[in-house]
Design goal:
7-stranded mixed sheet, mainly beta, 4-stranded antiparallel sheet, globular, about 120 residues
Length: about 120
């Protein structure tokens, strides 16, 4: 059974840091592009970042320079290091996966809440 399990959310003050982790199981990690999305209250879910197995990454403009996605192949885990957090980063963060040949993410975690206080 394919499963993505997020951890690491919480409450942090503006300007602070937080690291989210997503453990993937039931899939061949190298065959998947891993991503992070978020959904703020009253808003649609939006793309945050994605990482390919060959080291390539890309980010939403709103998070460039502050958030970093990385993969730990040995642990089948994808991390999202978040620095210089802002209140507008408050959201439920979702881990996602897609096969490299697919353009849409089709496997989703349950989400983890991040609250940034001003």
């Amino acid at each position: 059974q394919v499963q993505l399990a997020e951890a690491g959310g919480g409450l942090v003050q503006a300007g602070g840091s937080l690291t989210l982790a997503c453990a993937a199981s039931g899939l061949t990690f190298s065959n998947y592009v891993m991503g992070w999305f978020r959904q703020a209250p009253g808003k649609e879910r939006e793309f945050v970042a994605q990482a390919w197995g060959d080291g390539r990454t890309n980010y939403a403009d709103s998070v460039k320079g502050r958030l970093t996605i990385s993969r730990d192949t040995a642990k089948n885990t994808v991390l999202l290091q978040m620095n210089s957090l802002k209140p507008e980063d408050t959201a439920v963060y979702y881990c996602a996966a897609r096969l490299r040949i697919r353009s849409q993410f089709h496997i989703w975690g349950q989400g983890t809440q991040v609250i940034v206080s001003s």
